[in-house]
Design goal:
Layout: E1 2-9, E2 15-22, H1 25-34, E3 38-44, H2 60-65, H3 69-84, H4 89-99, H5 103-117, H6 122-126, H7 135-147, H8 150-174, H9 176-204, H10 213-227, H11 229-247, H12 250-261, H13 266-287, H14 292-302, H15 306-309, H16 311-320, H17 326-331, H18 337-349, H19 352-406
Antiparallel strand pairs: 1-2, 1-3
Helix pairs in contact: 3-4, 3-8, 4-5, 7-8, 8-13, 8-19, 9-10, 9-19, 13-14, 13-19, 14-16, 18-19
C-alpha cells in the first residue's frame, strides 16, 4: 500500500488535510468519501499534485502577474469536484478561497464569490477578470449554466485546460536544454573575446602584420566588444523594441505569422499545433452544447497564428450557409488531409465532437514527437557550432603563438 496526502472538505465546509494509506488513488478517494469527506486534491506522499501534478511551467511572466495558467487549471478541477459532490456554487467558491495559495488569486475569488452571492451568474462574475479567465472559458461556463450541466462542462473544461497546458509545458521543457546550451556557449565565447584575448593583444602588438589574418580579426572584434559594448547592446535593444512594436500591429503580426507558417520545420510544427488547438477547442465547445457557429467564432480567438485565424471567418460563413465543416476546412489548405478525413467521418456518423477530440489527441502526439526529433537534432548541432567557434578562437591564438617562434630576433 502507498501513502497519499490529501486535502478535502467535510460536510461543514472545513478544510481537512492529512495522509491516508491506499493501494491506488481511486481507493484513497473512496476511503475519504466513506469518512464523510469531499476530496479536493490527492497526491502520493512526498509529491505535489498527483493528477494535478503538471510539468512546471516556465512562463515566468504569469508567475510575476500572480495568477498562472496552472492556477486556473487547478481551480477548474477543484470547482468541478465540489459541484459534482452536490455543493452549491457559492459554498464551493468559499471552500476554494481557503484552498487558494496565492494572495492575488484569493482576492479574485473573493470578488467572484461576492458577485455570485449578489445574484449574478458565475460566468458574469468570471467575465470581470478577462486576464485570468479567457472568453473561451467564460462561454463554456455560460453554456453549462444554460444547460444545467455546469459540473459536467467544468469537468470537460478542466480536461481541455490540462491537455493544453501539458502540451505547452512539454514544448517549454523540451527547450530548456537547448536554451541552456546557447546561454553557456554564448557566455563562454564572450569571456574568451573580452577577457582572455586582450591578454594576448599586448604580446602580439609588436608583431604587426606577422600574425595570421584570423588572429587580427579576433583581436579587432575583441576591441570592438570591449569598447563599444554599450553601443552594441543599445542597438540590439532598439532593434528588439521596434521589431516588437511592429509585430504588435495587425499587419506586422500577420506578416510574422505568415513567415512562421511557411518556414521549414517550424512551419509544419506551427500548423500541427494550431490544428490540435482548433480541434480540441471546437470539440470541447460542441460537446458542451455550444452551437457550431458560436463555437467557430470562439475558436478564432484561441488560435494564435493570425493567418489561420483569419480563415475562420470564411469557414463560419460557409457553415452558416449550410455546408459541412469539412468542406471549407479542406479548401483553406491549412488543415492536413488526415484531420479533414477524421472530421468528415465525425460529421457522417453524427459524432463530430468525438472525432475532433481524437484529431486533437492525434496531433498533440505528433507535435510531441516532432519536438522530440527537433530537439534531438538541435542539441548536437548547437554543441558542434559552439565547438567550432571556440576551436576557431583557440586555433587562431595558437597560430599566432607559432608565428612568434618563426620571427627573427
Amino acid at each position: 500500500m502507498s501513502e497519499y496526502s490529501y486535502k478535502a472538505t467535510d460536510q461543514s465546509g472545513k478544510i481537512v488535510k492529512g495522509v491516508i494509506e491506499a493501494f491506488e488513488e481511486k481507493d484513497a478517494v473512496t476511503r475519504l468519501q466513506n469518512m464523510g469527506y469531499i476530496p479536493i486534491r490527492i497526491a502520493l506522499a512526498g509529491r505535489e499534485g498527483g493528477r494535478f501534478d503538471f510539468i512546471l511551467s516556465m512562463d515566468i511572466l504569469s508567475v510575476i502577474k500572480g495568477v498562472s495558467a496552472k492556477d486556473v487549471v487547478i481551480f477548474t478541477q477543484d470547482l468541478s469536484v465540489l459541484l459534482e459532490a452536490g455543493l452549491p456554487v457559492d459554498r464551493a467558491l468559499h471552500i476554494l478561497i481557503d484552498v487558494a495559495e496565492k494572495p492575488k488569486f484569493k482576492e479574485i475569488l473573493k470578488h467572484i464569490l461576492k458577485t455570485v452571492q449578489g445574484g449574478s451568474y458565475l460566468s458574469d462574475a468570471l467575465a470581470k477578470y478577462p486576464k485570468v479567465f479567457s472568453t473561451f472559458y467564460i462561454n463554456m461556463v455560460k453554456a453549462g449554466e444554460a444547460g444545467g450541466i455546469l459540473e459536467d462542462v467544468l469537468k470537460r473544461l478542466s480536461l481541455f485546460l490540462e491537455s493544453s497546458q501539458d502540451l505547452k509545458d512539454y514544448i517549454k521543457s523540451a527547450m530548456v536544454y537547448p536554451v541552456f546550451l546557447v546561454m553557456v556557449g554564448g557566455v563562454s565565447i564572450i569571456i574568451l573575446l573580452t577577457f582572455v584575448l586582450p591578454k594576448f593583444s599586448i604580446i602580439f602588438s609588436d608583431m604587426g602584420q606577422a600574425i595570421p589574418s584570423s588572429t587580427r580579426f579576433l583581436l579587432w572584434f575583441s576591441d570592438v566588444l570591449r569598447i563599444y559594448w554599450w553601443l552594441i547592446l543599445g542597438g540590439l535593444a532598439a532593434v528588439f523594441y521596434f521589431l516588437k512594436r511592429y509585430v504588435n500591429t495587425p499587419a506586422g503580426r500577420l506578416k510574422m505569422d505568415y513567415y512562421r507558417l511557411h518556414s521549414p520545420v517550424i512551419g509544419e510544427l506551427t500548423e500541427k499545433i494550431e490544428v490540435a488547438r482548433f480541434a480540441r477547442t471546437l470539440g470541447t465547445l460542441t460537446r458542451s452544447g455550444v452551437p457550431i457557429l458560436r463555437a467557430l467564432n470562439l475558436v478564432k480567438d484561441i488560435i494564435t497564428n493570425q493567418v489561420i485565424a483569419n480563415t475562420m471567418g470564411d469557414i463560419s460563413e460557409r457553415v452558416k450557409e449550410g455546408e459541412r465543416l469539412s468542406r471549407p476546412l479542406s479548401d483553406v489548405r491549412v488543415f492536413p488531409p488526415l484531420a479533414i478525413q477524421m472530421i468528415t467521418v465525425g460529421e457522417e456518423t453524427g459524432r463530430l465532437d468525438e472525432m475532433l477530440i481524437r484529431v486533437a489527441e492525434n496531433y498533440e502526439t505528433i507535435v510531441k514527437n516532432m519536438v522530440k526529433r527537433l530537439i534531438s537534432f538541435l542539441e548536437p548541432a548547437m554543441i558542434l557550432f559552439m565547438g567550432i567557434m571556440v576551436g576557431f578562437i583557440v586555433i587562431s591564438m595558437l597560430m599566432a603563438i607559432f608565428s612568434m617562434n618563426e620571427m627573427p630576433f
